[in-house]
Write a structure and sequence with these properties.
Chitinase A, domain 3, PPIase_FKBP_dom, mainly beta, cytoplasm, Peptidyl-prolyl cis-trans isomerase, elongated, 2 domains, isomerase
Length: 160
């Protein structure tokens, strides 16, 4: 069964940087589930999985435009220290979570004062060429409800 639009795809991944160092993996955890063809996955990863079969294991190296985006050097913001989540004491280089109108966002601390911090709002992996080792674990036709909602339901997907 070739992966195509309107299918729920489950996969495991290992993300590596330019030097081959592992940055993230979900090995040993539940697979990631997404609704193929509905902009629920990074474009480069979704394109790499399209047409594949259950059981396919492969690697793909992707440019920033197809993963976390190109780095914007002007993407600095000043935020109140009380909005930073993840630590009690902040130092330059640390990563924090902040709540935005679009949900939680990971930021990197550039400079921190007593009340305000300057943060880099680029994704920490923006601007980098990344390699994904992918293992297509399962795929099935999406339900009408999943298609209507625009996302996968169940393990590895969205829960209502």
């Amino acid at each position: 069964m070739s992966i195509k639009d309107d299918m729920v795809v489950q996969f495991n991944y290992t993300l590596r940087d330019e030097a081959g160092e592992v940055l993230e993996t979900n090995e040993g955890l539940d697979p990631i589930a997404y609704l193929h063809g509905h902009d629920n996955m990074m474009p480069g990863v979704e394109n790499a999985i399209a047409g594949r079969e259950i059981g396919d294991k492969f690697s793909v190296t992707l440019p920033p435009e197809q993963t976390y985006g190109v780095r914007n050097e002007d993407a600095e913001q000043r935020v109140s220290v009380k909005h930073l989540q993840g630590a009690k004491v902040w130092k330059a280089g640390m990563r924090a979570l902040i709540n935005t109108d679009q949900g939680q966002r990971q930021v990197t601390i550039i400079k921190v004062g007593k009340f305000m911090a300057t943060v880099d709002v680029n994704h920490p992996l923006a601007g980098r060429e990344l390699t994904f080792d992918l293992d297509v674990v399962d795929a099935r036709d999406a339900t009408d409800e999943e298609i209507a909602h625009g996302h996968a339901h169940g393990v590895g997907g969205h829960h209502h």
